Batch of 2 targets.
Target 1
Amino acid sequence: MSSQPKGAIDIHNLRVVFGSKGSEVEAVSNVSVNVKPGEFVSLIGPSGCGKSTLLNIVAGFVNATSGTVEVDGVPVRGPSANRGVVFQQYSLFPWLSVRQNVEFGLRMQGMASGQRQTKARTLLGLAGLLAFENHFPDQLSGGMKQRVGIVRALATSPQVLLMDEPFGALDSQTRVVMQQILTNMWQQFRISVLFITHDIEESIFLSDRIFVMTARPGRIKAEIAVPLPRPRTPEMTASTEFISLVQRLKVLIREESLAAMGSELKDGGLTGFSMEVGPQGIGEML
Amino acid sequence: MGEAISLSQKPSAPGAAGAAPLPKKSPEPTPAQLMAAWLSRNYLSILLWCASLGLLFAIWYFGTKYRFVFFIRFTNIPTPAEVFDKIFEVNKSGKYLLNIGISVRRILAGFGIAIMVAVPMGLLIGRYRAARDLLLPACEVLRPIPAIAWVPLSIMLWPSNEISIVFITFLGAFFPILLNTVHGVTAIDPVLLRAGRCLGAHEGRMFWHVILPGALPHIFTGFAVGMGVAWVSLIAAEMISGQFGVGYFTWEAYSLISYSEIALGMLTIGVLGLVCSGSIRFVGKLAMPWVSYSSGSNK
């Protein structure tokens, strides 16, 4: 919670290949992404484009085949409390209360019980969750669980926050509220965020910059700066700037979704309709 | 942190995120109120429990009263009253209670050792492939051997009869606890392991703070099953090689053709088993308060 922005992420020439020799699948190909200290960057792309893989590498769960990942100049080697992760699935420990979940990282750092309790309560207060500190995660709604998940990831004061479609499982109304909460928290903590999503509006509303990824193997197709001012408000989603950005991203992503589906359809998906189509063909058809 | 308050005050946030129904905290109800509340919530269950036990008792009572004979024969079965009288008769000397005490002691020893060995071993097997490859094949070979088949070897193996009976009780409890612990570890949601690691938990702390609590519901299932098998094993061992214990008491009654003592012995085993499994459930509830909130557990 220092006032100095921190957490530069540098992903350079990253390549990831899954599978054993002979049946190798290239998931990510030659990707370079950088996040400046305190910046909010989204990665968006069609499903299966390797965006989650990319995040897992930065988190330290998966090793890259080649290329480098550095956070504040230090190469990533395995998971660390310096890189907070918010998962797509609910990942609170069901046997710990909300407060104990938030304390978990501090406890691993060896912080004394009283101290970490104070810190956890402060953070829960910021997220409007103090009334639920003694509840178990199974007593909370999905939106609240993810808020606790964010608070828990922030508790150890990480350099960066990595978020893997954190609102993917929530209904659209809850989603909008969560986005607002996240931008507010992000502005307070001045932490860099790498955010994975497939939701175009979400990425624009939250981000300073957006990287669009191609269908597998994932490459960076475009880098788009979001010129909307801060703090962001829900009203901005009706502005012409916002809408034109949505249009632009939609076009970029649709091309990739079709390309992704095309490679599947080519393998006989449309033969039943006696059609002869390749990736480009479907694009024109639609 | 001064300006930080702004977002916490958003009244829409918790509501819009869909607050789950929360149990209301009322000011400290008295035990009598708690009891009444519990009764009113569970009266149907209580009724069914009574019906369940009542049916069993009715079959016994009427079967012995009218000396029912149709393929199954109630001719020599003692009546409930005879068995009830027997309770007072056997309690004139301390031998009956001594038998119970000795059986319980054997259970506690065998079951306790089984917990201490099977849980750590199960955690290791569940977590590490090498431990699995090293330990599991040996376990799988020994597992199908029923406890009674162990009796002769056990008597040869251990220095005293008492220890060999405890050993057989241990064996009965060991495998259910081991297998359930292994299953508990492998069933932990991988995202919880990732969450633990990216919050700075190293391997040793993962065991204590993530893997053990994550596997605990399954471990307690293992305890419940293991306790049942431990009793089965104990009674078998006592019947064959014991000098004391409820199993010995029952077998001795059979040898002496004392019908009502046979029934009393059986009932004693039933009640002791019930108390033991009830205690495990009780301890499980205390140790895992979160489980009652998991979906589907209160159906």
Target 2
Amino acid sequence: MERDVKTRWPGRLILLALFSFLYLPIAVLVLLSFNDSGLPTSWSGFSTRWYRSLMGNQDILHAAWNTLVVALFATLIATVLGTLLALGMETRARRSNGLEALVFSPMVIPDIVLAVALLTFLSRLNATMGLHTIILSHVIFDLAFVCSVVRARLKTFDFSIVEASRDLGASPFQTFWRITFPVLLPAIVAGALLAFTLSVDEFIIAFFTAGAGRSSITLPMQIYSMIRFGITPEINALATIVMAVSAGALVLSQWLNRENRSQ
Amino acid sequence: MTHRASHPNLLVLPAVAWLVVFMLIPCLMVLFYAFLTRGIYGGVDYIFTFENLARVFDPLYAKIFLTSARIAGLATLLAILIAYPAAYAICLAPKKWQPVLLFFAVLPFWSNYLIRTYAWIVLLNREGLVNNLLKSLGYTGEPLSLLYSEGAVITGLVYNYLPFVILAIYSSLSRLNPELLEASRDLGANALTTFWRVTLRLTMPGIAAGGVFIFVLSIGNFVTPAVLGGGRFQMIGNVVYDQFLTANDWPFGAALGMALIVIMIVLLLLQARLTAHFAGERREANDGA
């Protein structure tokens, strides 16, 4: 689109308003987490006491550990299955609408519906619920994201080098490890980071598939029960850490995938 | 295409099996449960009935559906009204800045949904920032109770899903053929007419994609009404939650969940039709230019 001087100022004002709206609430939260009094009413000096009190809170540390376990395993499974899925979908002779719908429906199904469906399924099987059931549920939506990132990379992948490798006598397995995998690696890691972020943040499905009791509570479940009781300075500190981790993972993911975006 | 992978179907098999077992079968089970009878001691009895589906249309629940649709509709409208100028402004920015602006517009979308919703409690509560700001501006009345209202829920929904709507509209706008806009102006149309008759029409698919996305996720939302509505009024997602976790009426909860899925499918199909329709128009316009 063309630009002229007249349209520059309104555009800048709109962008300023947009980014204020998007980032002010987050900025307030981060600022409050360093406020000594912890109250939103007045600034009483910089302090890291809420972070220290967080580190002494056993419930939160336990929830954080559970979240890490869930996110790591869900990401690992989804990355392997999602990469294979992307390879299969891109190399199929014909596009299958049914397959596309199956893979991408977790992105649009209301999460409460998926959550109750999983609860129904797991209780009908009399399955013991815990971290393992959260993991298997998270893989469902993580798959869609890993798959779409890897597929985007495959669209620009030159399959003739695979052919060349096979012609030169390499086995399919060797070809994958020495040729396809290294080319896809940045996209695979980018997809894995997205999956990890989603898993760390996911609340409702974890809530329904964690089973009773506090043993398999995750960080978002902990945050939910905390915010139901109103504002505590500890949540501000926790929120800041969680957002920093997500933002870090996303920046890394975008950076790894940058070549692909510019194409 | 024999030169590509040797066994594409084998490659998709593990993921497809996972999705069939842990997503498709559970969803079909919920569909099945919607036709069963609630057990006396919780659980379900295998007695076939249409009662649960009939209850979805009961005035009490029909009203909750309408409230949910109104809230989702207003959130959608507001999000489009904010996202369109925002996406337009990003398109007008220098080319090398556009990916950066877009990245920062979408970044919040990837951070924790609960935390982003909670941030509005901090802003809107009676001792919150907005009330403090009003006080410092000389407002002396009772602090406004902004929280736990429909307005707070709509604000939360718009805030949470805005990045995606911007992304959808931006991708439509950035593919707009500048020659069409020139042609329109050369033919004597002023800027407003050009925008109304050319730009807006050609970016309809983006608006529809973003709009359907935020509407579907809003109408079935659970977290935002629970946190910012303070449990004072319910949306469908909250009723589904209650049926499963407090009322223990799984068949009715299942019927409500299915109603949400039906709404989602209808809207996605409509969006696909609309996109196809406008894609045809776009092609014609480009051929003409």
